[in-house]
Amino acid sequence: MTLEAIRYTSGSLMLLDQLLLPNKSEYIQIKNTEDGWNAIKKMQIRGAPAIAVAGCLSLAVELIPKQFSNVKELVDFVVTKLEYLVTSRPTAVNMLDAAKLYTARMTEYAKQPDLTPDVIKNKIVTEIEQMLEDDVNVNKRMGQYGGEDILSGLGNSSATILTHCNTGSLATAGYGTALGVVRYLQSKQKLDHVYCTETRPYNQGARLTAYEIVYEKMPGTLICDSMVAMLMKKNKISAVIVGADRVVANGDAANKIGTYQIAIVAKHHGVPFYVACPSTTYDDTLPDGDHIVIEERPHGEMTSVNGTRIAAPGIGCWNPAFDVTPGELITGGIITEFGVFKPSELQQKIRQAKSK
Amino acid sequence: MTLEAIRYTSGSLMLLDQLLLPNKSEYIQIKNTEDGWNAIKKMQIRGAPAIAVAGCLSLAVELIPKQFSNVKELVDFVVTKLEYLVTSRPTAVNMLDAAKLYTARMTEYAKQPDLTPDVIKNKIVTEIEQMLEDDVNVNKRMGQYGGEDILSGLGNSSATILTHCNTGSLATAGYGTALGVVRYLQSKQKLDHVYCTETRPYNQGARLTAYEIVYEKMPGTLICDSMVAMLMKKNKISAVIVGADRVVANGDAANKIGTYQIAIVAKHHGVPFYVACPSTTYDDTLPDGDHIVIEERPHGEMTSVNGTRIAAPGIGCWNPAFDVTPGELITGGIITEFGVFKPSELQQKIRQAKSK
Questions:
Q1: Could you tell me how many CB contacts below 8 A there are between chain A and chain B?
Q2: I want to staple A276 with a disulfide (CB 3.0 to 4.6 A). Which of A163, A272, A335, B43 is the partner?
Q3: Is residue A245 annotated as a catalytic residue, yes or no?
Q4: Which of B52, B56, B131 is nearest to B92 (CA)?
Q5: CA–centroid distance for A244 within its chain
Q6: A 89-128 → B contacts, CB under 8 A
Q7: What is the percentage of chain B residues whose pLDDT exceeds 70?
Q8: Which of B117, B121, B109, B108 is nearest to B69 (CA)?
Q9: How near does any CA of chain A get to the CA of B294, in Å?
């Protein structure tokens, strides 16, 4: 059975508490947007696509049992809750986009005098539920496009992949973005090996990606973030594939801290560097990466592990959660559900695809 | 009072147990070479210069109370113990060099018929004790050469330094190699800021360098190994300074895993990259870095922190302790006790200096 980070049946939402992984697999019940906001903020669920799906589903489960006396009350309720959900993790664009989409929808529905609050509520709940299904389908298409692009450069050989952070079933509604490409390669018996970085300070690679690698019986190895350059010098790495928290108009990509460094090192060794980015993670309202606000997270993430102090008392820390990889370092391309594109052509290609 | 990793008075050797830092400062008593070998192997003491000094002093404390009935017995004893000490940490060249030096000395003394076992024993003990003093003096000269070289490129400004692993008082007999340069800058009121990496998987940066930074009241900040590129993009870094476990004839440098990656990233950002290498760490018997044997260490270092599992059960690991930075990436130069040299001219300069 595939790993599920989000378990949803109409009116009931359970999230796998990723803070307890890899030692315990426990689901937490999410009854409303406050529960959803907290789970995102505490990083019990993470990964830009999963955040949006889980956040919106937390709104759905809150909406389902609730009665509204008029349309305005319903619209105000939904819009306020969406705005609130966006504040849980500001760097991830998917939640913001979902909030904009559903806010626009609510405004539209409100203009139609024949729609009762109940009808509108059911429409919006159905649309949110559809997100979950769409996300998996988008990932599968990305997996195929990315996988075939990598294989096309390898003759008949299998691929050896390096990935960073967690972008698998645990970060999405299922299948995964960057790890979805690895999953596709495995399904075609074309995965020679996958390396994953620890991804300090939060260890998403060591805890989550490694967990998925073991769960899926992939041939895989964990390395420290500091070992990437030596790995590339010693072993033939076919490609680096990472996910994205936000890709902007010119193809610059914000992703987990450490991504930019891996891209520099990959270029130095001539290893193609890919960013897997569903179009929901693409944000062309920002011209380039300098406009992306980078979240800084608490120092305790660096100085302690599960309550054990690992750094000298009194030392100051700098803990940016993300960095920005300039488009010119994304040498393999940006993998979307519409195909693999150069960063410089991404805007045009996504516009074309969406206008079809 | 300066931090002391090695406390020695004739016949008594105490080592600060660095595995307990930064939470506890406890000294362990070393009574013989077996204690010394264990302390090095368990990494209670680490850093190439400190390993050699501590290893040889462990031989001195074993020799002092011991009686030998003839010269051959003494020579065999010393040579065997030196060979044994070399096996504790094979990558560090200093212990090997010290073993060669004292083995040659013993052979030489044995040829002089007027020397009794007691006289020879006292001579070798005195020479070993001199190592401790010499190491501190060498570091101070390196600090000044390196510090002045960095400042010469900054006009009247202060320096912002990034360092990796631990190369301070804890890694040497005192003062430090790369951190000795930082100490020199601080003493001249020319240290604007020092950043240190965590240095996964053993966290020597977070535990030891951060401890020294706090102890010496340096303006300093801890970062993860994955944050180097973003730090260089965001802040003006004057120089990277790292230590070395071994520098070979062509200027290639073996140092803590992650060093090679930082050198690539520094070159990408135009930040000068320095390696602090006392001539005792220079090994011109190997032509280039490809000939350096890299130690691989246990997986547990990566998967657990103080007994707490941090990686998914069942995942395979790769844990090389060192990597090799090619001389062409050492753009600032190699800092020795004789001056700062280009990697390509190192062999000639060290030969010249030693022949004076």
A1: 192
A2: A335
A3: yes
A4: B52
A5: 6
A6: none
A7: 99
A8: B117
A9: 11
